[in-house]
Design a protein that fits this description.
The chain is α/β, with parallel strands linked by helices and 241 residues long. The protein has 10 helices and 7 strands.
């Protein structure tokens, strides 16, 4: 089994991690709406889920709505950053479903190699992690996420994902830059966001995602949400796997 590990130069255990909750709201337009739709999707497709895996939740903002959406599920939460895991724990401690969560400071590959994961999850959720690695590692992680699903299980993935059409990209970059300026970010900060492309943040190719998932006996992924370059997909692993 080939497993992926994030290669981003963003340091979640330093100042970037301390301000990440605000940063993600700037960099992912409609971040709260994306998480809301993801929770609704799990609640709609698999409300009776018993085991849910969440990979890389950062501060854990997606977890309270997921706990409400899957009231009978036990959650395994993987977060490799010490600082992010602490913030995530604090987020969960304010929620009544906290006792249903097992928080583990590991990457996905570390958790698999340690024997923690047994490929027995009804749902797997991974928000804004795949774009922290280059395309080859993205492919490996997608495969690893699917491998943890039971037949009939649901996968939800969100990521930064550019269009394959350069003219569309140019327009969206222009609008995205104006949005950040309108939110009060200094122009040098806006330029910094744009220069992180393919150095700290890597686009997830939607067509490649589809091909990999279908090779792994999953349904054609459905895009549930897009705001500028932020996208959310859902797919289901076939029962005859």
């Amino acid at each position: 089994m080939s497993l992926a590990k994030p290669m981003s130069r963003l340091d979640f255990d330093a100042e970037y991690g301390r301000t990440y909750r605000k940063t993600i709201q700037n960099s992912v337009p409609g971040h709260g709406t994306l998480l809301e739709i993801a929770a609704a999707a799990i609640g709609n497709t698999f409300p009776a889920a018993k085991r849910v895996l969440v990979a890389g939740p950062g501060p854990g903002d997606e977890l309270p709505p997921l706990l409400r959406a899957c009231p009978d599920a036990e959650f395994v939460v993987l977060e490799p950053s010490t600082q992010m895991l602490q913030i995530c724990t604090e987020t969960l401690q304010r929620h009544e479903g906290y006792e249903r969560c097992k928080l583990v400071q590991k990457t996905l590959d570390e958790a698999v190699l340690s024997g923690l994961l047994q490929r027995d999850f009804d749902a797997v959720i991974c928000h804004n992690v795949l774009h922290l690695m280059a395309s080859a590692l993205q492919d490996q992680m997608i495969r690893s996420l699917v491998e943890q699903l039971l037949p009939g299980g649901v996968l939800l993935v969100s990521s930064y994902s550019e269009s394959a059409d350069p003219l569309i990209c140019e327009t969206i970059f222009s609008v995205a830059s104006q949005r950040l300026l309108d939110r009060g970010l200094p122009s040098e900060m806006v330029d910094k966001f744009l220069t992180t492309r393919n150095t700290a943040v890597f686009s997830l190719d939607a067509e490649r995602l589809k091909l990999i998932l279908m090779e792994l006996n999953c349904q054609n992924p459905i895009q549930l949400y897009q705001a500028l370059f932020a996208r959310l997909w859902i797919t289901k692993k076939s029962r005859d796997d």
